[in-house]
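Form 7-S
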Amino acid sequence: MKKLKFFSLLLAASMLTLASWAQSADEIIAKHIEAIGGADNWKKVNSIRQEATLSVQGMDIPVIVTLVHNKGSKQEFTVMGMTGYTIITNEGGWSFNPMMGQSKPEPMTSDDLKYGKDQLDAQGEFLNYKEKGHSVESLGKEDIDGTECFKIKLTRKSGTESVFFIDPKTYYPIRISSKVVANGQEVESIVNLSNYQKLPEGIVVPFTMENSQMPAPITMTKIVINAPIDESIFKVGQ
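Output:
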């Protein structure tokens, strides 16, 4: 009987733990938002301009990413004097890569565009996520290179999903795993984030990103918040 009582106590404790996890996603997200600068500071973000370097086979490839909140984004890269770009707006998306033999911009596939439009939120997807039509779920914990991280699954209004691995000491995401469609096939994209730095605006962002779909890490050299952006850059051919 004592063993049965002990087993019952363990079972009850386990069930309470599961219930706690089911209720803890919002608490983790709240601490995460506070850790990266707080909701008030992020609500002030209307544009982000990032300058970065991608080092591949001894070459430093300059990358510029310009994002206007919920309006458009443009990613530009220059290799051997040739500049390519990807543009995504609420109306559509286009890519141009002269290194791949393209002579003019081409429309993005519906799958690429679906995921790309999700990235137009400059203020962070967790901020007021319910109002945006997203949902979250706690998936417990998982060890990432020696750090026992919180796992938070974000399901966006569009239907795309990502799992954020959040460091319990800093509440910074150190990995984001997403399912994306490339060449008609679903693949897992893993982005490792590090070298977090605080900007003058009070927000904290990663300056180093390693994407499993890219050959080398991307290192940020400059990030400017709320610089004036001429939105004509989101027009194809501009």
